[in-house]
Amino acid sequence: MTHDSRVDDRPPTASGLRVLPQQRAMLDEARYSIPAVCETCMHSVFVRIGPWGRCNLHRDKAAMTILRFGSCPSHHESETKTSRLQGYEEYLEPAF
Fold it and tell me: What is the rounded distance in angstroms from the CA atom of residue 42 to the CA atom of residue 81?
């Protein structure tokens, strides 16, 4: 039996999504990356699907409103949130 190089032998993520080898090659060739943004920070809270949430680190009396795709030098990656990247974790850029 021969091994099919198009098959990714790693277990699927919770949603069943995998980055296939041919997709990975294209992403690598394109120098694809995912920036460290509020979406993946442990201090952010997004309760709706929309782009706006709050930051529990930068607050005085009330949490600061933030954009899901924004960033700051105080970014602290959340393993729980980055696990949602479903196979694309290796493309996550380090924070600042």
Answer: 8
Average pLDDT over every residue of 43-70: 87
- For residue 16, the model assigns a pLDDT of 53
60/25 Cα distance (integer angstroms): 46
Sequence-distant (6+) residues with CB within 8 A of 76 are 41, 42, 43, 57, 95
Q: Which residue has the higher pLDDT, 5 or 81?
A: 81
Q: Which residue has the tokens 């041919």?
A: 22
Contact 56, 63 (CB under 8 A): yes
48-84 core/surface letters (b: 16 or more CB in 10 A; e: else) = eeeeebbbeeeeeeebeebeeeebbeebeeeeeebee
